[in-house]
Design brief:
Elements lengths: L30 H14 L7 H5 L5 H12 L10 H14 L3 H5 L7 H18 L13 H34 L3 H4 L3 E2 L4 E2 L6 H4 L1 H8 L4 H4 L19 E9 L5 E8 L8 E3 L5 E2 L24 E2 L7 H11 L1
Antiparallel strand pairs: 1-2, 3-4, 4-5, 6-7
The chain binds a DNA duplex through helix 3 and helix 6.
Length: about 325
DNA sequence: AATTTCTCCAACCGCATCCTT
DNA sequence: AAAGGATGCGGTTGGAGAAAT
C-alpha cells in the first residue's frame, strides 16, 4: 500500500520529522549510549522502537536506535573481512536479486544489509566495472561506448608497439651499416632485417596482428576478461595464463608496457601472441581481497581478478588518443 | 612534516510497505 | 476500504582515517 505524500509539510500536519523533535541527538553513538541501548534491549527486548528511547533513557529517535542495534550492537553480528565464499554469495545473489540488500543479507548469517550494501559499493561493484562487467546486469559490457576506453587503450598500444618495432628495425639497420657486421655474421639477412635463424616476431606474424591491420578485430578476442564467469554460468573462469615476457616499452610519462606471449593451453604446442598488456591483479595486497568469481556453483575456483593497468585509462592518456580519433 | 586527496563505512533521510484500527 | 502510525529498505552523505603528494 502506497500513501501519496500530502502537499502540506509534516510540520504543518503537527508532526515533525524523526529526530528533529525534542532536540534529539544525531550522529555517531557514544559508548555510554551503546551501553544503555544494549542493556535495555537485553532486559526488555526492543518492543516498540518508537517508545524505546524514552524507556532506555536515550535522546535518540527510535529509528536511530533500531539502526544502531541491527547494524552494530546485535550480539550475532559478524565482523571483519568478507570471506571469498561470502563474496561469491553476494555476487551470485546480486545477479539474481539486484539491490535487494536485505534479501541478500538473509543468506549471509551475521551480516547486515547495510554492511553488504557498503561492501558492494566500495569493492565488488568497482571490481566488476574494472573487469568490464556491467554491475547491474552482470553481463560483459559489449556496447561501443562502454568499451571505448578499452578500444582507445588498444589503439594506443598498437601504435606503441609499431613505434617500438620501427625503432627496433632502425637500430638493427644501423647495426648492419657498420663495416664488417654482415660479413662476419652470415646468419644476418639484410634484406628483411631479421636474423634468419630467429623466430619471426610473433607480433608481426599472428592472426591478431593481421586483424588489427585490417581493422576487423573480434571483440571476443580483445577482452579475455569476458571469459570470467560468475556463479558458474557455464563459461570458463578467467585464469592466469602462463606468461612469457616479450618486450618492454615505455610511454611518454614513463609507464612501462609489457607485451607478452601467452601459452594458451598447456596441451597445445602452439603459442599465441597477445599484444594486450598483461592483466594485473588489482585486488590489493591484502590476501583477503584476492577473490574468485569462478568458484561459486561452478566450483572451478582459484581464479584471481586481473585487469589492465590503470594508466591505460588515465585522463591524459585517453585525452590524447581521443583527440586523434575525433 | 604539512597538506591534499582518496577511501570507506556508520548513520541519516525519505520513500515503501506493513500493520492496526 | 481507508487512514495513519510503525517499521523496513535502499540511496546517499559526512567525516574519520589512510594514502598520496
Amino acid at each position: 500500500m502506497h500513501h501519496k505524500k500530502p502537499n502540506i509539510s509534516e510540520e504543518e500536519m503537527g508532526r515533525s520529522p524523526c529526530c528533529d523533535e525534542n532536540n534529539l541527538k544525531k550522529g555517531p553513538w557514544t559508548p555510554e549510549e551503546d551501553q544503555k541501548l544494549t542493556d535495555h534491549i537485553q532486559k526488555h527486548g526492543h518492543g516498540s522502537w518508537r517508545a524505546l528511547p524514552k524507556l532506555a533513557g536515550l535522546k535518540r529517535c527510535g529509528k536511530s536506535c533500531r539502526l544502531r542495534w541491527t547494524n552494530y550492537l546485535r550480539p550475532d553480528i559478524k565482523r571483519g573481512k568478507f570471506s571469498e565464499e561470502e563474496e561469491n554469495t553476494i555476487l551470485h545473489l546480486h545477479s539474481v536479486l539486484g539491490n535487494k540488500w536485505s534479501a541478500i543479507a538473509a543468506h549471509l548469517p551475521g551480516r547486515t544489509d547495510n554492511e553488504i550494501k557498503n561492501y558492494w559499493n566500495t569493492h565488488l561493484k568497482k571490481r566488476l566495472i574494472q573487469m568490464g562487467i556491467d554491475p547491474i546486469t552482470h553481463q560483459p559490457k559489449t556496447d561501443l561506448f562502454t568499451c571505448l576506453p578499452q578500444l582507445i587503450a588498444l589503439a594506443n598500444l598498437k601504435e606503441l608497439l609499431e613505434h617500438t618495432q620501427l625503432t627496433h628495425n632502425l637500430q638493427y639497420f644501423n647495426l648492419l651499416q657498420q663495416p664488417g657486421i654482415v660479413a662476419n655474421n652470415p646468419e644476418l639477412n639484410a634484406t628483411n632485417l631479421m636474423p634468419t635463424n630467429q623466430e619471426p616476431n610473433p607480433y608481426f606474424s599472428n592472426i591478431f596482428q593481421q586483424e588489427l591491420g585490417q581493422g576487423r578485430v573480434e571483440m571476443s578476442n580483445l577482452f579475455p576478461v569476458e571469459n570470467a564467469s560468475i556463479g558458474g554460468g557455464g563459461s570458463q573462469p578467467l585464469q592466469q595464463q602462463q606468461v612469457v615476457p616479450f618486450m618492454n616499452v615505455k610511454t611518454s610519462d614513463d609507464h612501462e608496457v609489457v607485451g607478452q606471449c601467452q601459452m594458451s593451453d598447456k596441451s597445445s604446442s602452439s603459442s599465441t601472441w597477445n599484444p594486450l598488456p598483461p592483466l594485473m591483479d588489482t585486488s590489493g595486497s591484502n590476501s583477503q581481497e584476492n577473490s574468485s568469481y569462478g568458484g561459486g556453483s561452478g566450483g572451478a575456483g582459484g581464479a584471481s581478478l586481473y585487469n589492465w593497468p590503470d594508466f591505460l585509462f588515465e585522463d591524459s592518456f585517453l585525452d590524447e588518443n581521443l583527440k586523434e580519433m575525433c
